[in-house]
Amino acid sequence: MVGTVRHWPQRDLVLHTPRLELRPDDDAGLAELVEVAYAGIHPPERMPFLVAWTDADPRYMGRGTLQYFWSERARFAPEAWALHFLVRHEGRVIGMQSLTSTQFTVRREVDSGSWLGREHQGRGFGTEMRAAILGYAFDHLGARHARSDAFADNAASLRVSEKLGYVRDGISIVAPRGEPVENVRLRLTAERFARPGWELVVEGHGPELAGLLGAA
């Protein structure tokens, strides 16, 4: 494992909040994440994702989920990267929180996406885990802007963004299920970030990882 961490420095990264632990994906954790997805993320009549991946044939959704995260690892580079954090509460995987960027060295901008299993929703975890990756991006990577988006009817996600200081930045029309849906774009600057009343604890962030993320 020591050799693996040395060649894959993001594997050593951990973000700690008062209730949660966020680590970049590992295969054991991904297996748990798949089970959380199968247990349900959203009501079947609603689709909160730009890509309707939860509509996949249940026989293949688990395999497709794993293939997606594996492919994200394979293309990881300073020019375009994605940190997909497995979110754990009391040792159990409850969802995922992504932090992504393209040309971070020049643009200093990150994007985010997330989901929680239905049984873990409504407990403030969504705000806590987004605040964690924003604190990491602004304070440890030197990001200047963060972007996110949510469908206009996704009140919970929009509420999280509002709490953290995002402002609306226009709309786009998307069609994850073949029908038009209004997607709200959101933007946050480091200065507007509404910091939580707790301190983020970061482990495993060093010069090698900073260089891999284009943040050296």
Description:
This protein has 216 residues and is α+β, with helices and mostly antiparallel strands. It is built from 7 helices and 9 strands. Strands 7-8-6-5-4-3-2-1-9 form a 9-stranded mixed sheet, sandwiched between helices. Helix 2 packs antiparallel against helix 3 (58-74).
End-to-end gap: 25 Å
Strand order of the largest sheet: 7-8-6-5-4-3-2-1-9
User: Beta-sheet strand percentage?
Assistant: 25-35%
- Main structural class: alpha+beta
Count of DSSP strands:
9
Q: DSSP helix count?
A: 7
Radius of gyration: 17 Å
List descriptors.
single chain; 216 residues; alpha+beta; 7 helices; 9 strands; 34% helix
In short:
It is built from 7 helices and 9 strands. By secondary structure, it is of the alpha+beta class. The relative contact order is 0.18.
Topology:
Layout: H1 2-7, E1 14-16, E2 20-24, H2 27-39, H3 58-74, E3 80-89, E4 92-102, H4 104-107, E5 109-116, H5 125-141, E6 145-151, H6 155-164, E7 167-174, E8 181-189, E9 201-203, H7 207-212
Parallel strand pairs: 5-6
Antiparallel strand pairs: 1-2, 1-9, 2-3, 3-4, 4-5, 6-8, 7-8
Helix pairs in contact: 2-3, 5-6
